[in-house]
Design goal:
Blueprint: E1 17-39, E2 45-62, E3 68-75, H1 85-93, H2 99-103, E4 114-123, E5 129-138
Antiparallel strand pairs: 1-2, 1-4, 2-3, 4-5
Length: 143
């Protein structure tokens, strides 16, 4: 069940370092696309919309607010282009899957999966430091 939060509620970002993350949710998201303008009902040019997915991971570590740290990854909807965030993410999450399997993936099948993650702080387009998962690999169960 999605966690309800107040509008604009800030959470402590996941710190840089090694973490074990569990995929909790993959949900659709629509945001403004400043690179593609469209004409609105008044004839004004406004930013278009782009459809994305938000992949929400939960860490084993607890944040100062008493809840597990969360890490979100925004991707597009299409797998295949090596520059695309979805391609990069799925290649890390499913290293043994074929391209065809990744292109037709039901994301619900990945919910609850655990991954060893390396988080680094990187500058975003607004020049702010934000956490980014630079490596995710499936946790291999002990035998």
């Amino acid at each position: 069940m999605p966690q309800i939060r107040g509008a604009g509620e800030k959470r402590e970002p996941i710190p840089a370092g090694k973490h074990v993350l569990t995929l909790k949710e993959v949900k659709p998201h629509e945001s403004a696309d400043p690179w593609h303008e469209v004409e609105d009902e008044n004839g004004q040019m406004v930013p278009g919309k782009k459809e994305q997915l938000i992949w929400i991971f939960e860490a084993e570590e607890i944040a100062p607010d008493g809840r597990p740290y969360e890490h979100a990854v925004f991707t597009g909807l299409f797998y295949g282009d090596s520059r695309a965030n979805l391609t990069t993410l799925l290649d890390m999450l499913l290293p043994k899957a074929t391209d065809d399997e990744k292109k037709s993936l039901n994301t619900d099948l990945l919910l609850g999966s655990r991954y060893d993650a390396v988080i680094r702080m990187v500058k975003n387009q607004k020049n702010n430091l934000v956490p980014k998962a630079v490596d995710l690999s499936p946790v291999v169960a002990d035998k």
